[in-house]
């Protein structure tokens, strides 16, 4: 290990530089070209009119807010569902781990278009005799355009594979049964043991799961479009229209918005234990 | 480094608890972990649970902590049945085999964790945690996180954490097994010192007989989920109740002998008295002898031949083969004299005139 480390630090390795350069060219060149294309108008120099048009367009704030609300609700729901389940798998039901892993991986093999086709069929189904029942009312409520709960449910399912893997990696790095037993031995009940002893050590995993879910919700287009809702991704595609410069500008903007939000979560969550975690 | 207990013995010794295991049974599928364990721990004593892997010693300890539940039987602390009391209300501090400190908390906060659960005020719990860290010799490491502490230091913090709630019973589940030899030795002496200062009733699970014999007031040897013998270390070694205890604790050699029906046995050409339990009549038996009870002397006409010599420090352990493809017997000689007993040398093997243990002939 020490030998590997010292080699890594002491020696210039041209192979790595080449790989890094290739990756930078692959990712950054198109991005830079896109930005230049949207701000450099031939004959007029640099101006940001396209971006001003997008930001001033009707529905920008509303769709972005809707996406953020959906993301927050999805993150909360998927973590509430998965964290206790995965801790329980570590504590008592180890044999169910492969089953849960397969179930959580299923959304990866079902294309979103097939998934949303199924949802749409269920939502439009409704025989006459059910029209006065709570079931019908529920169908209406989950499709409320102000806050479409059905999207939260769909995104929760779609986020399962990523959340499962993020949490599994976090749980692998700690000895959950021993931590829970140590906490219980110190007088903590089950819930306190989970909140005080396990969750703080899963901070990185929880952040990763939240990152992935946020990115998924902000970029998801198919399900929202087919169910006729208008979160940020759908709005931004609509505003791009047929103007080449405008459609590239919306792509760049959506990338930056996602990055900014991910940075905000990282800054909010922190990454390493610091003296501030010491009890006051 | 201050090594005085924050709570003088009077505070806890008077309150030291008795612990009683009554007919505890527990099976995991077809594996029986405890098969009717009966054991009583006296107030303020350090009792070691010793036995091979799978003998049920850890299961017994975890039952007392509330992490396992018996299929039948009862657990009593100070005469009160705690069998159904949940783990977080057991009033038993435990130190685990694996490092169990909360990685996100400093040493001080780890020790204060239990007090926080009990809603003790911040100032009081910090003061108490600092006292306990002083007690385990880590007063200057209170701000360190577990990953900044060595294995031995982590187990010391775990010990302080286990003592923080002033438990009635202290449970130690092989706390030294992950540590290197030198740290083990120091820490086990520390554990004994603290246990005696606080006068707290303590159960110590180990599979290391030297560890058990060196620090425990009494040692309970377990086998197959049952108690074989529970005695003071000296008695356990000198007067084992069963063949299993004799062979598990320390080293014994088996020598063929024949009882004479009058409480003596003929072995190695002489007759020596038999400890209690001598079979009636003349029977072929195995005589169990400790290496230090065997006398060897260099003798070209002797009845044995040295086949190996193992250096153990102050003594050297000889393996001597008896004639006619007889058994091998272990004998300890002072290392200063070991030069006379190189492998291949013929020796005379004798037993002193002390009573010996006999068991049914093996095989």
Task: Write the SSE topology.
The complex is a heterodimer of chains A (about 280) and B (about 375).
Chain A: H1 2-10, H2 14-39, E1 40-41, E2 45-46, H3 49-56, H4 60-91, H5 97-109, H6 112-124, H7 134-142, H8 149-172, H9 176-185, H10 190-198, H11 203-219, H12 222-226, H13 232-240, H14 244-269
Antiparallel strand pairs in A: 1-2
Helix pairs in contact in A: 2-14, 4-8, 4-11, 4-13, 5-8, 8-11, 9-10, 11-14, 13-14
Chain B: H1 9-13, E1 19-28, E2 31-41, E3 46-50, H2 57-65, E4 72-77, E5 80-81, E6 92-95, H3 107-117, H4 122-135, H5 151-163, E7 169-173, H6 181-198, E8 201-206, H7 209-215, E9 218-223, E10 226-231, H8 233-238, H9 243-248, E11 253-259, E12 264-267, E13 270-273, E14 284-289, E15 295-298, E16 304-311, E17 315-321, E18 328-334, E19 346-350, E20 357-360
Parallel strand pairs in B: 3-8, 3-9, 6-7, 7-8
Antiparallel strand pairs in B: 1-2, 1-4, 4-5, 9-10, 11-12, 11-14, 12-13, 14-20, 15-19, 16-17, 16-19, 17-18
Helix pairs in contact in B: 3-4, 3-5, 4-5
Keywords:
heterodimer, A: 280 residues, mainly alpha, 14 helices, 1% strand, disordered C terminus, B: 363 residues, Rossmann fold, OB fold (Dihydrolipoamide Acetyltransferase, E2P), 2 domains, 5-stranded antiparallel β-sheet, 9 helices, elongated, disordered N terminus
């Amino acid at each position: 290990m020490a030998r590997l480390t010292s080699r890594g630090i002491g020696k210039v390795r041209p192979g790595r530089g080449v790989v890094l350069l290739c990756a930078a060219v692959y990712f950054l060149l198109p991005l830079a070209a896109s930005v230049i294309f949207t701000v450099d108008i031939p004959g007029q120099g640099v101006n940001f009119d396209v971006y001003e048009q997008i930001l001033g367009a009707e529905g920008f704030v509303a769709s972005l807010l809707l996406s953020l609300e959906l993301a927050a609700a999805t993150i909360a729901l998927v973590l509430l569902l998965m964290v206790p389940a995965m801790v329980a798998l570590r504590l008592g039901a180890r044999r169910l781990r492969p089953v849960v892993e397969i179930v959580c991986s299923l959304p990866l093999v079902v294309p979103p278009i097939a998934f949303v086709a199924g949802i749409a069929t269920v939502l439009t189904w409704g025989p006459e005799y059910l029209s006065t029942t709570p079931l019908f009312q529920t169908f209406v409520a989950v499709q409320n355009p102000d806050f479409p709960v059905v999207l939260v449910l769909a995104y929760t399912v779609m986020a399962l594979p990523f959340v499962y893997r993020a949490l599994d990696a976090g749980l692998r790095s700690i000895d959950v049964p021993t931590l829970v037993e140590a906490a219980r031995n110190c007088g903590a009940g089950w819930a306190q043991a989970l909140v005080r002893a396990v969750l703080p050590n899963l901070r990185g995993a929880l952040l990763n799961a939240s990152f992935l879910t946020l990115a998924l919700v902000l970029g998801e287009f198919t399900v929202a479009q087919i169910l006729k809702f208008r979160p940020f991704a759908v709005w931004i595609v609509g505003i791009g229209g047929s103007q080449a410069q405008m459609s590239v500008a919306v792509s760049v903007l959506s990338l930056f918005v996602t990055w900014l939000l991910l940075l905000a979560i990282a800054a909010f969550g922190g990454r390493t234990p610091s003296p501030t975690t010491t009890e006051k | 480094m201050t090594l005085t207990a924050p709570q003088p013995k009077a505070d806890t010794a008077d309150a030291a608890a008795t612990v009683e295991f009554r007919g505890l049974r527990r099976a995991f599928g077809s594996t029986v972990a405890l098969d009717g364990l009966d054991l009583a721990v006296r107030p303020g004593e350090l009792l070691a649970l010793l036995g091979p892997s799978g003998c049920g010693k850890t299961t017994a300890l975890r039952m007392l902590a509330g992490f396992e539940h018996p299929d039948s039987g009862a657990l009593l602390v100070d005469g009160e049945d705690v069998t159904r009391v949940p783990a977080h209300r057991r009033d038993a501090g435990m130190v685990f085999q694996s490092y169990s400190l909360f990685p996100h908390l400093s040493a001080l906060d780890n020790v204060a964790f239990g007090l926080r659960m009990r809603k003790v005020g911040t100032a009081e719990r910090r003061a108490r945690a600092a006292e306990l860290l002083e007690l385990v010799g880590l007063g200057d490491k209170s701000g360190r996180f577990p990953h900044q502490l060595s294995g031995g230091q982590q187990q010391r913090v775990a010990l302080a954490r286990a003592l923080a709630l002033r438990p009635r019973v202290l449970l130690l589940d092989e706390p030294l097994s992950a540590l290197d030899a030198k740290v083990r030795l120091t820490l086990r002496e520390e554990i004994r010192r603290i246990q005696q200062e606080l006068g707290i009733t303590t159960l110590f699970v180990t599979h290391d007989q030297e560890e058990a014999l060196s620090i425990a007031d009494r040692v309970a040897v377990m086998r197959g989920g049952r108690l074989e013998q529970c005695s003071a270390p000296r008695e356990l070694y000198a007067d084992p109740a069963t063949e299993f205890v004799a062979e598990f604790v320390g080293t014994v050699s088996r020598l063929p002998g024949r009882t004479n029906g009058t409480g003596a046995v003929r072995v190695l050409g002489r007759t020596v008295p038999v400890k209690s339990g001598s079979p009636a009549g003349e029977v072929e038996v195995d005589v169990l002898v400790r290496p230090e009870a065997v006398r060897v002397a260099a003798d070209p006409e002797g009845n044995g031949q040295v086949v190996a010599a193992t250096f153990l420090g102050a003594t050297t352990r000889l393996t001597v083969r008896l004639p006619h493809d007889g058994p091998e017997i272990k004998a300890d000689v002072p290392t200063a004299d070991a030069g006379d007993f190189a492998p291949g040398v013929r020796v005379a093997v004798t037993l002193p005139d002390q009573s010996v243990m006999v068991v049914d002939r093996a095989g």
